[in-house]
Structure formats: C-alpha cells, structure tokens
Amino acid sequence: MLKREDAALDLRKGRAIPAIDLLGGRVVRLHQGNYDRATAFPVDPVELARRYAAAGAPWLHVVDLDAARTGTRSSEHGHLLGRLRAVPGLRVQLGGGLRSGRQILAALNRDADRVMVGTLAVSDPALVGRLAAQTGRVVVALDCLDGRVRTHGWVKDSGADAAAFVTGLTAAGAADFLVTGIDRDGTGRGPDLDLLRSVRAAVPGLLLAAGGVGAAADVDTAVAAGADAVVIGRAMLDGSITLA
Questions:
Q1: Nearest CA-CA partner of 13 in 42, 56, 68, 73
Q2: Of 64, 143, 185, 218, catalytic
Q3: In this structure, which long-range contacts are made by residues 106-113, counting pairs with CB atoms below 8 Å and at least 24 apart in sequence?
Q4: At 186, phi and psi to the nearest 5?
Q5: How confident is the model at residue 154 (pLDDT cuts 50, 70, 90)?
Q6: pLDDT in tens, 201-212
Q7: CB of 129 within 8 A of CB of 166?
Q8: What's the start-to-end Cα distance of the chain, in Å?
Q9: What percent of the chain has pLDDT over 90?
C-alpha cells in the first residue's frame, strides 16, 4: 500500500540506484548502521536484482555487511556476487571489506564494475587515490556521523572531518564519492542535504548520496543539493517507494 502520493520512481532516469545489503546470505537493512538492528527481508537477492534490472536500473549497489565488519568475504557472498553481476543489463557497484589494493583489483576483475572503499581510504589515502585515478572505477565511501568519518562497517570513529577527508582524497587522485549520513540510514527521514552541500564543491566527479531516502521526492531534493545519483535500500524493500 502506498503511503505517499510521490511514491512512484522511474529507475530509467538513472538518478536512483537500488541497493542490496547482504548479511549471512540474506537481504537486510540496518538502522543507522547498527548490526543489532538489522531487518531481514524474505526475498532472494538475485531475483530482486532481476526485478530492478527489468525496471530499468542501470546500476545495483551491493554492500557485503559481513565483509565490511570483518574484512573477509565469505564464499557464500562471493558466489552471490557472481550471480548478481550476471544479471543482464545491470552493473554492480560493490562495497564492504576491501582493505587492500590487491582486494580492490581482484573485486574489479571478478565481482564488480566499480567498487566503494571507505576504511582503506582513511588508512591509506595515497593508495586509494592512485587506484581511483588509474582505474576510474573506485568510489571513495564517506560514511559520516556527527560530522566525522566512520570506518570498519561504520563501527569505528576515524576522527577525520568530512570536508578534510574529501580534500585529502581528491589531492591523492580520487574523483568520485559516495556520501552516507549514517544517522539517516534506514530511517526514511530524508537524506542529509547539509552534508551533501558541504562537500559538493570539493568533489570533482560523481557525488552519490545514501541514507534516509523514504520517498521518491527525496531523490529530487538530494539531486537539488548536488547529488548525481541517490542510493535507495529500505524504501524500495518495504514498499514506501514503488517502481513506475
């Protein structure tokens, strides 16, 4: 049942990117990044990806939550990623657990069309910036809470300021960023527009937004604040947003 009149979304416009978060082989959504507040959805991830592809989505955003927390990807999730990438017409952007240059390059070769790197971007910005410049397929994940960047699946506070973090990574060679307002994630309260505006001028390439989308109109407001595209998870899964 639709909750709002602006619930229908046309994925063919390319401004919205559907998301699938994996935890223990299941499709889940966390509330504000809290692993103890995970909601599991009774849907097969590959069938869900096919549904999004049929609706015209050019990209699928996939986060391996297990790997994000531990740094290790399970064989089950590795197999799932192969099946997701095989869905016709759909390109995969993957995040979670990419903690070395070797892992990034392996993921680009096998699992994804582009990758999102957060923890390693904090610990080794020079490496991530260089790989981003060389491949054109590395997106820096800026996961922000109370103005500071979080790492290790949002569990640890890096102490880095969001604006300084972006400036340092662009100087190292990065161009594209995914900005997530952690306190908005899974809440449906709308994206963090102030955060988007604060970093837009410093981002030379794509600025992707995530966290808080509860209705199709939230995509428009995020784009107006400077985002090139918006990642949507829970709102598509729980029916708050339907596909036009």
A1: 56
A2: 143
A3: 108/135, 108/137, 108/138, 110/81, 110/82, 111/78, 111/81, 111/82, 111/85, 112/62, 112/81, 112/85, 113/59, 113/85, 113/137
A4: 75, 5
A5: low
A6: 999 999 999 999
A7: no
A8: 14
A9: 70
Residue 86, class by beta-carbon neighbours within 10 Å (0-12 exposed, 13-18 middle, 19+ buried)?
A: exposed
**Token output for 105:** 């390059």
Paired with 63 in beta bridges are: 21, 95
| Percent of the chain at pLDDT exceeding 70 | 96
Q: Name beta bridge partners: 176.
A: 139
CA dihedral 33, 38, 39, 45 (to 10 degrees): 80
For tokens 């991530």, what's the residue?
A: 128
Average pLDDT value for residue range 64-74: 91
Whether 21 is catalytic = yes
Catalytic residue status for 143: yes
Which amino acid does the sequence have at 182?
I
